Amino acid sequence: MRKLWILLGICSVSFHLNAQKAMTSQDSIKVFYDKLLTLLKSDYVYKKDVDWKAVGMETNQNLKGYSDFKSSLAESGKLFGKIKATHCKIIYKDKVYGTTLKASTDHLSEQWKEKYATKPGFEVKVLDGKWGYILMPGIKSLDFSAENTHKTAQPMYDQIAAVKTKNKLEGWIIDLRFNTGGNSAPMLLSLYDFLGDNDIWGTVDRNQKQNSKVKLEKGKYLSNAKKTSSIDPEGELLDQAKVAVIIGQLTASSGEVTALAFKGRPDTVFIGEKTFGMTTANVDVALPFSSTLILSVALDTDRNGKYYDQIVPDIAVSGQDNFHDLLADKNVQEAISFISKK
């Protein structure tokens, strides 16, 4: 099964092994890596930047040192590192194999680390009776079905709608500092009121040619005009409300897609630090032995088709987080200043 991770529809591909007699460990390793290398060479977004002959020879030589298939999966991370496929992964028996990206913690505040350690969830609240605040964390799920997306998004949307209905707010703050990725569709559906009936993001190939667009329309999430999931909207849209989006150095992957959806939106400002830089769109592809390849096949763009290596804030703030008292948080203070300007 193959479909765009973050729910961009792509035609299905399946791979099945014929029954083989007395397959040795080295046979299994060869079958797996031959298929993996073939897929990378044909579909990886930066495939033209790779010396595949040299990479293939080195990988095959290294594979001789593994005694069984499972242990050989460690080589996939080395392979991805060689071709700079840092967003690619192998999933086998619920374990993930790939490159390990270590983000610098030099500029992370103690309060950020403290809050992150609690595994923060989705939050909606009103600050000082005037400003709506939404904390949108990463949503880690490998179930991209329409049903699960709706089930995840609707309760978040409902919380926002309740605050919208009960309060007359001057503007909204959307905090993505803990959004390290996952599935962007429920994130974006829950934020439908702010994004409205518009194109919100898309993808381009290596040559900047548009190959997909995502749109929200009356609560529906449309990928290349095909509905993939939806929420049941309520009340007036907030697409003309002032919005401040807070981003950080660990805003990554689907977190960056969520931020990109606000690029080009009127009355919007980005505050904080530049994002992690994992702005490639992925598909999942079946591999031998019930394993799955998460493969980067395109580049994420904003609603106008512009690609960003990283999202850079309009107002830079670093290391001045305060999650004990949000009104003392420098990012929130800058957001309130923006919202309060006539």
From TrEMBL:
Signal sequence annotation: 1-19
Listed GO CC annotations: outer membrane-bounded periplasmic space
GO biological process: proteolysis; signal transduction
Keyword Transport appears in the UniProt entry: no
Keywords from the UniProt entry: Signal
Example of a GO MF term: endopeptidase activity
Keyword Signal: yes
Tail specific protease domain sequence ranges: 110-318
InterPro entries: ClpP/crotonase-like_dom_sf (IPR029045), Tail-specific_protease (IPR005151)
Name of the protein this chain belongs to: Peptidase family S41
Species this protein is from: Chryseobacterium shigense
Taxonomic classification: Bacteria, Pseudomonadati, Bacteroidota, Flavobacteriia, Flavobacteriales
